[in-house]
Amino acid sequence: MTEASPTWLVTGGAGFIGSNFVLGRRAAKAARIINLDKLTYAGNLRNLEPLKDDPDHLFVHGDISDPALVAELLERHRPQAVVNFAAESHVDRSIYGPQVFIQTNVVGTLQLLEESRHYWENLPSADQEKFRFLHVSTDEVYGSLNLDDPPFSETTPYAPNSPYAASKAASDHLVRAYHRTYGLPTLITNCSNNYGPLQFPEKLIPLMILNGLQGKPLPIYGDGKNIRDWLYVTDHCEALALVLQQGRVGETYNIGGASELTNLEVVTAICGILDELRPDSPFLPHSSLITYVKDRLGHDRRYAIETAKIANELGWRPRESFSSGLAATVRWYLAHRDWVESVQTGEYQQWLKKHYGGAPQPTGTERNSCIR
After folding, report:
1. Which of 29, 35, 154, 231 could anchor a disulfide with 13, C-beta 3.0 to 4.6 Å?
2. Considering the entire predicted model, what is its pTM?
3. Which of 63, 92, 139, 172 is catalytic?
4. In this structure, is residue 118 part of a structural domain?
């Protein structure tokens, strides 16, 4: 790194999106990164193995809710930016246990904002001008769309429908308030459903890939017609880098993949790829494993993201189509079975048993439903 290269404090950088962001930014030598992660069930140090000998990546095991730790990291490393990925993010888990979502997503974000504000207020004026606090959020804060509604824009009123979405909405409001009240130079992004390498396999796409390989049921919620917009994770990370470096302070940018699909369409596409890549599988066609299960409580019907703002202001558009991104994702999981085995143990298996233990076996006439 050169002397002019910045330092960024990245929180949640061992999770799915965070680790992809860290890996991509270090590959580009964009910044020295201090990576703070609590290493909950979804955080995985194996995600960061390519950086084990990188002197410009420092991993710190800790919690954003620990103000003394955050303050110490800020003072010691003097970052030019804080990028906040740290969050509990699984809707189903928030329904079963909302308290941890409030603690991490609301209280944790508040603590991180407070320590960032104190740090920023004591910087020289030139460094204050350069500093940024980027908060990574979700389209779920906007609620649910009808089939004929226009996509979410940055001015869509918040209407969260799950404890997870409500906790992220609260954190977004805190970030906005810290800019309006204290002048902290913040940025907020709200993204659609991410997919790609390193995603913890309780989420829809990796769960369907791995269940399909093992001949297990492919559970889809309700009628399978809930619609999501799908965003390949490396496209998302490129957008975040642009927002961090070129976004207007105090603004929100929506990031989407321009790929609205029903859950049934997504799972059917996965089955088709598995059929092609595993033609000797005893579970052909993999679509015969599709199974409908009871719908999620308060299940949002449709999400869609309008990306005109980030396209017009920053020139960002997704590189991957859904078909190319999905094929790359399936191939990654097939090629990284050691990584899969390392995360499919212990607490994760207990969660699956609790949540899907009563799911019916497929009969050939049933169809499927799933997870965000």
Report:
1. 35
2. 0.91
3. 139
4. yes
